[in-house]
């Protein structure tokens, strides 16, 4: 038995589920990073809604957002970890899994703090449509990321996550990896974006994407848009040349991303409106999580998806 809030033990267990023979390139790492990103990227600074606190992707409204297609695999990979450590919230588990996976794939260590709670019903699920649409261009990228209070430099840094994983026609409508080793974090995405000749093609799902001359890797319209804007391409070139700078900036912006919507008092305590019958202050080192509407832990994984 591990004691509550032993996050090192959770980290160790997450590492065990990273190898997944038969799934993509044999690793759950990229999809765990995507889960952490998508459960956080619903934040809206104007209304102070969305974000990882609440773990609202457990509910059908958000789980069925087309932008989240395929993330059921990531959530399922993590269920054995949740079962072993029932005290950890899904918000904490999903974001911690992302930073552990990133580091295990050769990426930088991202600062992570616990204390998130899970919403007890779907009344606080943010609306669909807040995540990026890969078929769009620069105005769309700025609309999405400015809403979360990111700068142009941070938009490009976060785009570097495309060095991991691959697209699937039955999920995103796009097909293929961005790099030839999609389970190793690096600045290769930026190098390839600048160096390769990218030919526009219509894929099997009927969507426009861009392929290299060997037809092994691809880029999305949102990736190519980074080359069309002087403020964006400036950072593409910097990160292509300076791996250490990219790793440093990515660690900072990914850490910022997973904290969006997590309101902390002095000392790191988490405050979440609407989590119980009113505002609730939750200490990082642990607080009882009360369920007023449904006990999702007892109802099982399907109730959370």
Automatic annotation (TrEMBL):
Keyword Transferase recorded: no
An annotated Gene Ontology molecular function: heme binding
Residue ranges with Basic and acidic residues bias: 113-122
GO biological process: cellular response to oxidative stress; hydrogen peroxide catabolic process; response to reactive oxygen species
Keywords: Heme, Iron, Metal-binding, Oxidoreductase, Peroxidase
Gene3D superfamilies recorded: 1.10.520.10, Peroxidase, domain 2
CDD domains (alphabetical): ascorbate_peroxidase
Signal peptide: none
EC number of this enzyme: 1.11.1.-
UniProt region (Disordered), positions on chain: 113-133
Domain (Plant heme peroxidase family profile) ranges: 71-290
Role noted for this protein: Destroys radicals which are normally produced within the cells and which are toxic to biological systems.
Family listed: Belongs to the peroxidase family. Cytochrome c peroxidase subfamily.
Name of the protein this chain belongs to: Peroxidase
Species this chain originates from: Saitoella complicata (strain BCRC 22490 / CBS 7301 / JCM 7358 / NBRC 10748 / NRRL Y-17804)
